[in-house]
Design brief:
By secondary structure, the protein is α/β, with parallel strands linked by helices. The chain has one domain (7-150): Rossmann fold, CATH 3.40.50. Helices cover 49% and strands 21% of the residues. Strands 2-1-3-4 form a four-stranded parallel sheet, with helices on both faces. Strand 3, helix 3 (84-102) and strand 4 (106-114) form a beta-alpha-beta unit. The chain starts with 6 loop residues before the first strand and ends with a helix. The model has no long low-confidence stretch (mean pLDDT 93). GO terms for molecular function: 6,7-dimethyl-8-ribityllumazine synthase activity. It catalyses: (2S)-2-hydroxy-3-oxobutyl phosphate + 5-amino-6-(D-ribitylamino)uracil = 6,7-dimethyl-8-(1-D-ribityl)lumazine + phosphate + 2 H2O + H(+). The active site is at residue 84. InterPro entries: LS, LS/RS, LS/RS_sf.
Length: 154
């Protein structure tokens, strides 16, 4: 019996659109190189990403819903002058971890948390850090592990 192709949902925060484009390009290249299928949903920022992944997972349990094998979270959080950086960084990471553990979802976390825009570009550029591609590869690896341990369940 042939296994269904892997289907990934990329959820990208668009607060820093140029950086988001680069992260997305890296993720898409990694997913295509793997031979998987993907969809993309854009949200305003990093805090919205876990909620959309939860909604997508819940929607996949409905009769007409699309079932995803894994998720890639992409976004950028740059430190500013207020405590907001810590809230967004910590809560987006906590939300993703809660979903990964609580719902057994395969998630690649590509939300950059950096001091400044130069650090963000160094991590986002495909030719340098390629964190978008890295997050996609992590999600794909987690899908493989999940299939191995849970018998192919989506």
């Amino acid at each position: 019996m042939q296994e269904d192709p892997v289907r990934i949902l990329i959820v990208e925060g668009r607060f820093y659109s140029d950086l988001s484009d680069e992260l997305l390009n890296g993720a898409v290249q990694a997913i295509q190189a793997f031979g998987a299928e993907h969809d993309v949903i854009s949200v305003p920022g990093a805090l919205e990403i876990p909620a959309v992944i939860a909604l997508a997972d819940e929607g996949g349990h409905r009769p007409a819903g699309v079932r995803y094998d894994g998720y890639v979270a992409l976004g950028v959080v740059i430190r500013g002058e207020t405590h907001h950086f810590e809230i967004v960084s910590n809560e987006s990471a906590r939300g993703l971890m809660d979903l990964a553990i609580g719902k057994r979802l395969a998630i690649g976390n590509g939300i950059l948390t950096v001091e400044d825009e130069d650090q963000a570009w160094a991590r986002a550029r495909i030719s340098e850090g390629d964190k978008g591609g890295g997050a996609a590869r992590a999600a794909l690896e987690m899908v493989s592990i999940k299939r191995q341990l849970l018998g192919g369940a989506r």
